[in-house]
Design a protein that fits this description.
The chain is of the alpha+beta class and about 220 residues long. Helices cover about 45% and strands about 15% of the residues. It has nine helices and ten strands. Helix 6 links the parallel strand 8 and strand 9.
């Protein structure tokens, strides 16, 4: 009789519980690290033998997982990692890391759009500051091409009241506008909750491919 240690159900449960917050872990095909899925990018092999990213993790077929940063994806493309992972000749799509970045931007935009439709997003300089005076934010959203003066006023108000708020600054005002149904958006805020958490996970993956300017905006600054 097989021991409980070898039962498939127990192995699946152990895998599911090993990630952060219950997220299943997968092995990076480049570094061989075991990491939670939300720190990796899934790739699938197309019918014509091309490795393509599946940032939503929903495409059918066997997947190969790579750590969610540009250097790891570039290394996977240059070292023939995908052929080994899929056990057959597989070529990477052109500018693979750039394709991943574009998909992650769209995923972030999608999460912001869902928050807007759910009434969980606040848009505009005055509206964001009014909200901050009453409740803590889930995520502060600042356009990468917004003015330093405006974002400092928002950030220092939030920091004075809530210590170190989560801030996302890698999306442009045009990209934020796409999310919120406007031409351009500079300042926004997501209310605390599941939608903010989902955006945060997508945004952290994006910062492996695009500079996160908020890390420099407020570092070492005092209120």
């Amino acid at each position: 009789m097989p021991s409980q240690r070898n039962e498939p159900a127990r192995r699946l449960k152990a895998s599911a519980e090993s990630g952060t917050g219950g997220t299943p872990c997968r092995q990076c095909a480049v570094s061989r690290e075991s990491l939670p899925q939300d720190r990796l990018i899934r790739f699938v092999r197309s019918p014509d033998g091309v490795a393509v990213p599946d940032v939503a993790g929903k495409l059918p077929g066997r997947g190969a997982w790579v750590k969610a940063d540009r250097a790891s994806v570039d290394e996977a493309a240059s070292r023939n990692i995908f052929s080994r992972a899929f056990k057959t000749k597989t070529v990477p799509a052109d500018d693979l890391a750039g394709v991943v970045e574009a998909q992650l931007v769209q995923r972030c935009i999608g999460h912001l759009g869902m928050a807007r439709k759910a009434g969980a997003a606040i848009i505009g300089f005055d509206q964001v500051r009014d909200y901050l005076r009453k409740q803590p934010p889930g995520y502060l959203i600042e356009a990468s091409d917004g003015s330093e003066d405006g974002r400092n006023k928002v950030h220092f108000l939030a920091k004075a009241m809530y210590d170190m708020p989560n801030t996302a600054g890698a999306l442009t005002s045009a990209e934020l506008g796409m999310a919120f149904g406007r031409a351009h958006v500079i300042h926004a805020l997501l209310q605390e909750g599941a939608l903010s958490d989902s955006f945060g996970r997508a945004y952290q993956r994006l910062t492996g491919f695009r500079t996160a300017p908020e890390r420099d905006w407020f570092s070492g600054r005092k209120r």
